[in-house]
């Protein structure tokens, strides 16, 4: 086992043998979602997010931080490859907000080829991300621990959808064209620096739970969902409460010399948002 896999397995709480099969893929997918939160703090601090293997390992594994799709699926791809899976990254166009025209490719996801079948894995789409791989097969409803999904195919284009109450909501479009590191670097830079990017205007965080629940955070508003219903909602009163919640409920590391952050640094970030007038106190 490689040193990276040893550290990664400790990070996500995996202690079993890692075999190249669908059972391992499913188990690792859910454990990753449960242990490494989706978050965009580095966009807000602001810090440049590096996508090389060492930088991602230092941040998401060693420093116990989270990240967004380019980081999350970068780490997951490396882990799967070092186990022995045939895996590569794809890029998608996010349409969750129903844009009037197709946006650029700013979402990283994974294609896994296993025993003659192709699977989509994705640990980096925030609150609606997959928590299990799904078959690359059109027009079949596929269950995951956190909801029902399906794929629609339009020629070379695929569309991932999730069931939202009684209708299907599209998440992103993608194809199977081979991408390169430069493509991820471009999408990452655009997501972090484009003035209208939603990652620049809100603190966003999500952690899925093994029991089918999930925790979400938008600025100072925290919600715990279970079976699709909010069972706990908190409007945090100040930055001190927010700083504590990030650690206690999301398991976020804050003490690393390079990737950690202080309560004062968080206060500076939150003071920029009008959603909480006392954010800096």
Structure explained in plain terms:
Keywords: Acyltransferase, Transferase. Its EC number is 2.3.1.118. This is N-hydroxyarylamine O-acetyltransferase. InterPro entries: Arylamine_N-AcTrfase, Papain-like_cys_pep_sf. Pfam families: Acetyltransf_2. This protein has an eight-stranded antiparallel beta sheet with strand order 5-4-3-2-9-8-7-6. The chain has a five-stranded antiparallel beta sheet with strand order 1-10-11-12-13. The protein is 30% helix and 27% strand. It is globular, with a radius of gyration of 18 Å. It has a domain at 3-196: Arylamine N-acetyltransferase fold, CATH 3.30.2140. The model is unreliable at 277-281 (pLDDT under 50). The protein is an alpha+beta fold and 281 residues long. A hairpin with a 2-residue loop joins strand 8 and strand 9 (167-174). The protein has helices at 3-12, 22-35, 41-44, 53-62, 69-83, 181-193, 239-248, 263-270; strands at 38-39, 86-94, 107-114, 117-121, 134-135, 142-144, 147-154, 157-164, 167-174, 204-208, 214-218, 221-226, 229-235. Helix 4 (53-62) crosses helix 5 (69-83).
Number of helices: 8
Summarize the biggest pleated sheet: 8 strands, antiparallel
Instruction: Report the principal-axis shape.
Output: globular
CATH class of one domain: Alpha Beta
Structural class: alpha+beta
Strand content: 25-35%
Strand count: 13
Overall pLDDT confidence: 95
Strand order of the biggest β-sheet: 5-4-3-2-9-8-7-6
Alpha-carbon distance between the two ends = 47 Å
Poorly predicted ranges: 277-281
Helix content: 25-40%
